[in-house]
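Q: Can I see a sequence and its folded structure?
A: Here is a first one.
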Amino acid sequence: MARAGWKLHELAAYAGHRDPKTTLIYVYLSGTDLTAKMAHSVGTLDARLFGQLFKSE
């Protein structure tokens, strides 16, 4: 579910954990998962910056 984009507090609630730190014990994201997330974030930020720099007025 973490790979599907669920947020930590959502995973914790689904698992019945009161403290999200407990959920972190069971969640593991591989380097591939983290790289994909970072690439998506950078792409989104680049697009936003490009739009601000080159928007037509």
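Q: Show me another, different protein.
A: A second, unrelated one:
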Amino acid sequence: MLILHKYEYPGPGRLRGAWWCDKCVALLSAPDVGIGQLFALLRQWTPCTQLQLDTIVMEILKRGAHVDDRDGMTDMTLLHYTAKSGALGNEELACR
């Protein structure tokens, strides 16, 4: 089971990565974390996942998924998740 730390939403002026710890990145990069678990993380759609969308999506792509692969629970593709991020005002991140 993939469990990340609980963090408070970063306040104004805090850097995007200042609250995404090295342990979280190492956990996401672990080879035993599957695509389904990463989709489950995206599905939470918390401020943490919204701000780290590119990291999570890149980890999913590294595992052999494609932008048109679907989350079995929501039927959303990776492209849907990135478009959702862009619609919320993070266009630059969504286009990566």
